[in-house]
């Protein structure tokens, strides 16, 4: 059976492509659909179906774009109610793609419409499961997202549905089936996913805590709900875009691809109250940037942090990027529904400097310099996740996770100096840019973050610091 996983690391996302005898299907595509169209053209195949496992929260799917450009039919599982034409399949219904068969298994739990697709090859042998967010490698989908969109749903109700979906629909299937999930490690759609992106169902029955033999429903619910962190704020907005529809990517990019010189850029920023988003590396940003801009580097988990820190999905945005990175930035923003970029600085930050415009910078220190300054009176803020902080942190550090920073601004001093760090310097520079924008100046960021701090052997503890902000 020909099945290809198309993995996008920025979102920890996997789409799938199957092709047989001139017919193809795509499962859970990203919004930029041209790569799928080119892949099918190379195989001299027509895309017949776009199968969706559920209404996604962490990205805007490309199902509408594929339907528009190829005529492919969109397929959702039972109970889905999109605001556009689509096939709403019945549980057990079978679709054909050339000599392959795709069987619908309704597996509610992550969401009510969540569906797993059982793939059968040209010889009639069941080959694999495209599980969406129902079953990951090492984990299962979190059941607390749909409640933010559908009134009356609770995470407890969804968790109990997921328990039965796994045991009634998936676990009875053959151990040699290959599991093809929608996400891998790094996605916020689960809490402990493996770095592996496929496995056999038999291995998962042995290794995945959620498939443990003899596990009661109450035990499953307790283990599944324990340790869930707050989902990113843009998730419910992406769900609604996937349900209601959205502008074509071509239209979004046409509006956004507007080069502006320094004067035009400044006028646009002031007139539109646009957010200036700088996607260069933390090191480059620290050396110099446009005042009041926010740094979220393309080289990290850009989409996730853009969606987490830019709270208004309708916010107008102006971009500062490295040369040639404009299109990539726009596409990665559009993947999570940020469709309101109104232009970019032609020539990047260097053009701003050459125009004699005002600039700002952020002080950075090495871990060795931090060690020299370190004492019990130093104000040190660790912006890693609470779980990272609890695992190990510098004695005396205060934990303010990056995604909570706007709720804890009162903890930072505008008079007394303080120091920021994260794991490697990416998140702390996002925090630094936000604090600068809020009027904080008397601080420094640690180059290399906690990894460099460990190398310098600063005093650390693996116990939760009593000053930790929850």
Please outline what is shown here:
By secondary structure, the chain is an alpha/beta fold.
How many structurally independent domains?
3
Q: Work out the radius of gyration.
A: 24 Å
Mean pLDDT: 94
- Please give the alpha-carbon distance between the first and last residues: 49 Å
Level-1 CATH class name of the largest domain: Alpha Beta
CATH topology of the largest domain: Metallo-beta-lactamase, Chain A
Shape: globular
Major sheet attributes: 6 strands, mixed
Q: Helix proportion of residues, in percent?
A: 25-40%
| Percent of sequence in beta strands | 15-25%
GO molecular function, one term: hydrolase activity
Keywords: Hydrolase, Metal-binding
EC number: 3.-.-.-
Domain Rhodanese: 270-361, 374-462
What do these coordinates show?
The chain is of the alpha/beta class and about 475 residues long. The chain has 3 domains: about 5-240, Ribonuclease Z/Hydroxyacylglutathione hydrolase-like (Metallo-beta-lactamase, Chain A); about 245-355, Rhodanese-like domain (Oxidized Rhodanese, domain 1); about 365-460, Oxidized Rhodanese, domain 1 (3-Layer(aba) Sandwich), CATH 3.40.250. It is about 30% helix and about 20% strand. The chain contains 16 helices and 24 strands. It has helices at about 35-40, 65-70, 155-170, 200-205, 215-225, 235-245, 250-255, 260-270, 280-285, 300-310, 325-335, 350-355, 365-375, 385-390, 425-435, 450-455; strands at about 5-10, 15-20, 25, 45-50, 75, 85-90, 95, 100-105, 115-120, 125-130, 180, 200, 260, 275-280, 295, 315-320, 340-345, 365, 380, 395, 400, 420, 445, 460. The strands form 5 sheets. The protein has a 6-stranded mixed sheet, covered by helices on one side. Strands 7-8-9-10-11-12 form a 6-stranded mixed sheet. Helix 3 (about 155-170) links the parallel strand 10 and strand 11 (about 180). The longest helix is centred in the middle third of the chain and has 16 residues, at about 155-170. The protein starts with a strand and ends in a 9-residue tail after the last strand. The model is unreliable at about 465-470 (pLDDT under 50).
């Amino acid at each position: 059976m020909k099945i290809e996983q198309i993995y996008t690391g920025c979102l920890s996302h996997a789409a799938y492509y199957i092709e047989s005898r001139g017919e193809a299907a795509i499962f859970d595509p990203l919004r930029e659909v041209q790569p799928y169209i080119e892949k099918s053209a190379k195989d001299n195949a027509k895309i017949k179906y776009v199968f969706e496992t559920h209404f996604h929260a962490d990205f805007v799917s490309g199902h509408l774009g594929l339907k528009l450009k190829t005529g492919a039919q969109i397929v959702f599982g039972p109970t889905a109610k999109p605001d556009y034409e689509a096939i709403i399949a019945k549980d057990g219904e079978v679709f054909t793609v050339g000599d392959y068969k795709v069987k619908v298994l309704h597996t509610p739990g992550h969401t009510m419409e969540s569906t797993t697709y059982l793939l059968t090859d040209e010889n009639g042998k069941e080959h694999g499961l495209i599980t969406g967010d129902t079953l990951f490698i090492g984990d299962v989908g979190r059941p607390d997202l749909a409640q933010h969109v559908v009134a009356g749903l609770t995470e407890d109700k969804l968790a109990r549905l997921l328990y039965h979906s796994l045991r009634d629909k998936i676990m009875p299937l053959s151990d040699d089936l290959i599991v093809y999930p929608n996400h891998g490690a790094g996605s916020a759609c689960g809490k402990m996913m493996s770095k592996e992106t496929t496995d056999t169902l038999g291995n998962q029955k042995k290794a995945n805590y959620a498939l443990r033999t003899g596990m009661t429903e109450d035990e499953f619910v307790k283990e599944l709900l324990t340790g869930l962190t707050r989902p990113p704020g843009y998730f419910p907005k992406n769900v609604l875009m996937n349900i209601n529809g959205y502008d074509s990517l071509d239209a979004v990019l046409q509006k956004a691809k507007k080069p502006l010189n320094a004067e035009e850029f400044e006028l646009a920023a002031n007139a539109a109250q646009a957010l200036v988003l700088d996607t260069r590396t933390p090191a480059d940003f620290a050396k110099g940037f446009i005042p009041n801009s926010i740094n979220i580097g393309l080289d990290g988990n850009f989409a996730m942090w853009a969606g987490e820190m830019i709270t208004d999905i309708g916010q107008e945005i102006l971009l500062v990027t490295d040369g040639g990175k404009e299109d990539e930035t726009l596409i990665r923003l559009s993947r999570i529904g940020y469709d309101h970029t109104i232009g970019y600085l032609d020539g990047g930050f260097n053009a701003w400097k050459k125009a004699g415009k005002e600039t700002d910078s952020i002080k950075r220190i090495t871990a060795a310099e931090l060690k020299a300054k370190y004492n019990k009176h130093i104000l040190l803020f660790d912006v890693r996740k609470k779980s990272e902080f609890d695992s190990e942190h510098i004695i005396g550090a205060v934990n303010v996770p990056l995604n909570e920073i706007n709720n804890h601004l009162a903890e930072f001093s505008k008079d007394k100096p303080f120091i920021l760090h994260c794991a490697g310097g990416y998140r702390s520079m996002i925090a630094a840019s936000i604090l600068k924008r809020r009027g904080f100046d008397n601080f420094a960021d640690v180059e290399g973050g906690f990894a460099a701090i460990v190398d310098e052997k600063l005093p650390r503890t693996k116990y939760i610091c009593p000053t930790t902000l929850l």
